[in-house]
C-alpha cells in the first residue's frame, strides 16, 4: 500500500502573510529581544567608555613642561600625586592633568594663560559650527577630535550633536536610539510648546572631564516639522512684525546662552543638509569650520554648500540677525600627502581661498579608522593599540589642526598665541616640528 506523502510545514507560511510594516516590526523586536537577553551590550559599551591615564611623558607634552620637571614636582609632593606603575612610571588622569594646570598657573603666573587657558572675564564664548552639506565629509570626526583635543588642553567644552543619526553621540558611547528619552536632545530645549525644558537638563557628562555632550536622535526631526507648521500659521504676516529672538533660527543660540558661563568653547556637529537646525547653528555660531575632502566632487559640493549657506544667512540678516564670524576656515580631511591628485586639489584650494584654508591637514590614517571601529579616538587608546608609526603620524596631523584652531581662538580673545599652543605642535616622539 502506497503511503501518503508527508506534507512538510512551510516555516515561511506565517511570514508570507505579513505586511511590510509587520515584518519590520517583527525583525526589530527579534533584534531587541536578543540584545536584551545578552545583557544590553549597547549599555555595556556606554558603561565601558572610560578614559585611560596618561604617562608623565605624554602629560609633559600636553601641558608644555619637561618630564624631568614633573618628576621633581612629584618627588617634592607638589601638585597632584600621580599613580605609580611598574618601574616607577608615573600616570595621571585627565582630572589630575587639570589640577596640575591649575597648580602651575598659580606658581608660574606669567605663564598662567599657557597652563590655564580657560576664558577670562570679557572674553566671549566661542561657538564653532562644523558644517558642510555632504554626508561622509568627516564633520563628525572633526567635531569629535576637536572637542576632545580642546578638553585635553584645559578648555571647558560642550559638544552638540544636531544630526538625527546621532553619530557624534555614538562616538562618545551614547547610543541614543536605544537609551535616550524623547525630550533629552537639543529639541527638548528649543521646542515651541510647554514641554520645553532647560538646556542644562539635556547636557550629559562624558568620560572626558570638562567635556559635555548634548546628544542627538530622531527627535530632532520634530523641530523641522514644528517650524514648518508654525511658519504656515504666519502666512500673511510681515516678517518685520516678528521679533528676531522669537524666530526658529534664534532658538539654538538662546539655548546655548542659558549655559554660556559654563563653557569656553561649544562645538556644533551640523547635519548633512541645510535644514532649520543647520540654519539655527549658523546663527548661533561665532565661527565656522568647513571640513573638505581633497576630491574634486567634494570641492564642487562645498561650493554648493557655501551658496546655500549664503542664501540662508542673507534671509536671517534681512529680518534682523547679525552674523559676523570671528573666523571661517576650511580644513582638509583624510589627506594623503603622497597622492599627486590630492596634492593638486589642496594646492587649488589654497590658491582659491588663501589663508582661509588651515595650514595643517588631517592625514588619511588607518590608525584613526582602527580606533573608530572600537568607538574610540586616538586620544583614548594606548599607543600600542595601533601601529606606532601610523599612530605618530596621525597624532601629529590631528594635533597640528587643533593647535591652529586654538591659535584662532586665542586671537579672538586678543591673547598672544606664542606659548599657548606651540607646545602641542610637538611630535609624539617629543621632537619639535621644524
In short:
With 434 residues, this protein is an alpha/beta fold. It is 44% helix and 9% strand.
Which secondary structure elements does this structure contain, and how are they paired or packed?
Blueprint: H1 13-16, H2 20-37, H3 41-48, E1 54-55, H4 56-63, H5 67-75, E2 83-84, E3 90-92, H6 94-107, H7 112-115, E4 126-130, H8 139-152, E5 157-161, H9 167-171, H10 176-179, H11 186-190, E6 204-205, E7 211-214, H12 221-233, H13 251-257, E8 265-269, H14 276-284, E9 287-292, H15 296-318, E10 328-332, H16 340-353, H17 366-373, H18 388-412
Helix pairs in contact: 4-5, 8-18, 13-14
Helix percentage = 40-55%
Largest sheet: 7 strands, mixed
End-to-end separation:
95 Å
Q: Which CATH top level class of the largest domain fits?
A: Alpha Beta
Which features would summarize this protein structure in a list?
434 residues, alpha/beta, Multidrug-efflux Transporter Regulator, Chain: A, Domain 2, Rossmann fold, 2 domains, 7-stranded mixed beta sheet, 3-stranded antiparallel beta sheet, globular
Describe this structure in words.
The protein is α/β, with parallel strands linked by helices. It folds into 2 domains: 54-115, Multidrug-efflux Transporter Regulator, Chain: A, Domain 2 (Orthogonal Bundle); 126-425, P-loop containing nucleotide triphosphate hydrolases (Rossmann fold). It is 44% helix and 9% strand. The strands form 2 sheets. The chain has a 7-stranded mixed beta sheet, with helices on both faces. Strands 1-3-2 form a 3-stranded antiparallel beta sheet. The protein starts with 12 loop residues before the first helix and ends in a 22-residue tail after the last helix. Residues 234-244 and 423-434 have low confidence and may be disordered.
